[in-house]
Amino acid sequence: MLWPKAVKERLKTGGDLEIVQSYPYRSAAPSTLWASLIENTEDDLFLSGYTNYFFWTLVPAFSQALRRKTRAGCRVRFLLGDPDGEVTRQREIIEDVALTVSTRIHMTLEELKRLGDLDNLEVRFSAAEDAVNHVSLSVFRFDDQELVTPHLARLVGHDSPLMHLRRANEGGMFDRFAEHAEELWGRGVPVAAP
Fold it and tell me: What is 143-155 written as a DSSP string?
């Protein structure tokens, strides 16, 4: 009688089947996880965090990785918040930190500008009507895996929790978060080439 209970407690069989790991803080996820997911992505690298600036500080040689990915035919997309948008200004007041939201977005834009014109690299700002939904949930997609951060109250992204998901079933958690990010992307505003 104990064996089936012990097995059930160890095996994922329901809605948690797609959860690989969860972390109480995004910053608790090892940098090697991010680097490995990026390196193993072949088709679709979709980074839909509101600022995305931390990739250049977290992942060694991130710009070179982006160049390799795009040259190999991988679609690379960045969905950013509008640095001049009202939601960005409101979030800066809420967070009340020296490294403001708009500054972090501008840091990402500067790094992307340094990459030059790359085939397969696309950048958009979330639409004004979607900004509040974008700033509250970051979805980072690496083919069939995702890292998802729901942003808590006044906390910055690295202090919010993170879930590592792997797609297992149609219509599961992975797909629900992916569809959210794709919806925001679909209404996003293309960023002019630098």
Answer: TTEEEEEEPPTT-
pTM for the model? 0.89
HSE-CB at 145 with a 13 A cutoff on CA atoms is 16
Longest alpha-carbon distance in the chain: 65
CA distances to 4, 14, 19 from 52, in Å:
44, 32, 23
Q: What residues form DSSP beta bridges with 140?
A: 47, 147
Tens digits of pLDDT across the chain (194 residues): 555 555 445 555 556 789 999 999 999 999 999 999 999 999 999 999 999 999 999 999 999 999 999 999 999 999 999 999 999 999 888 888 888 999 999 999 999 999 998 999 999 999 999 999 999 999 999 999 999 999 887 767 678 999 999 999 899 999 999 999 999 999 999 997 55
Q: Rounded to an integer, what distance in angstroms lies between the CA atom of residue 88 and that of residue 92?
A: 6
E-assigned strand segments in 16-114: 19-23, 44-48, 75-80
In the block, tokens 């990026």 appear at 38
